């Protein structure tokens, strides 16, 4: 198989999409684009502006006008990218618990998703990109030559997220994170179906490097 110019990676929250996408992009020399950060940036901005997240028109209007910039890492603090809203670096704020709790609400509106999908599609059409999200292979870039759908059990995803947050000094409990991810799955279920031609991979019990190698072997890289 010829090395594809666009690779999409979809799947539920916490399945390991971001880690796989970053590693794969690095190996191929491609741009790594986690499309979910656009919805997180929108959610953060909505909270900052006290936008009513239950008002679809208000959220859509904010999505239309917000200036979101996604750039290669600008600080050597372990980040995968730098995200700006206007001139403000909000990269780590995107993982705040209030953003985590509200991002599914902010992103559920069709008008919001239409705006974000157009921006994502434009980036994908430039090529040499690994795009990570929920519906990239099925909706945003349906013609992408390689689509991966990454799965992991709810228990494994909650364990990973708990470890990640605790490593950052957060005082969180596994049960709390489990419940939050389960709720997120319910809210995201409408965009969690793999594309018909996607390669489905389960990440439980596998290291990120194992999965990267499996994908690279698939494309002969």
Summarize the structure in words.
With 221 residues, the protein is an alpha/beta fold. It has one domain: Rossmann fold (3-Layer(aba) Sandwich). The protein is 48% helix and 15% strand. It has nine helices and eight strands. The strands form two sheets. It has a five-stranded parallel β-sheet. β4 and β5 form a beta hairpin. The longest helix is centred in the middle third of the chain and has 15 residues. The termini are close together. 36% of the residues are buried.
Furnish the topology, listing elements before pairings.
Layout: E1 6-10, H1 17-28, E2 31-34, H2 36-48, H3 56-65, E3 68-71, E4 82-85, E5 88-89, H4 97-106, H5 110-124, E6 129-133, H6 136-140, E7 146-151, H7 154-167, H8 174-188, E8 199-202, H9 208-219
Parallel strand pairs: 1-6, 1-7, 2-6, 7-8
Antiparallel strand pairs: 3-4, 4-5
Helix pairs in contact: 1-9, 2-4, 3-5, 7-8
Trace the largest sheet across and list its strands.
Answer: 2-6-1-7-8
For the biggest sheet, the summary is: 5 strands, parallel
Number of extended strands: 8
Tell me the fraction of residues in β-strands, as a range. 15-25%
Apparent shape:
globular
Descriptive labels:
five-stranded parallel beta sheet, 9 helices, alpha/beta, 221 residues, 48% helix, three-stranded antiparallel beta sheet, Rossmann fold
Briefly characterize the structure.
The chain has 221 residues and is an alpha/beta fold.
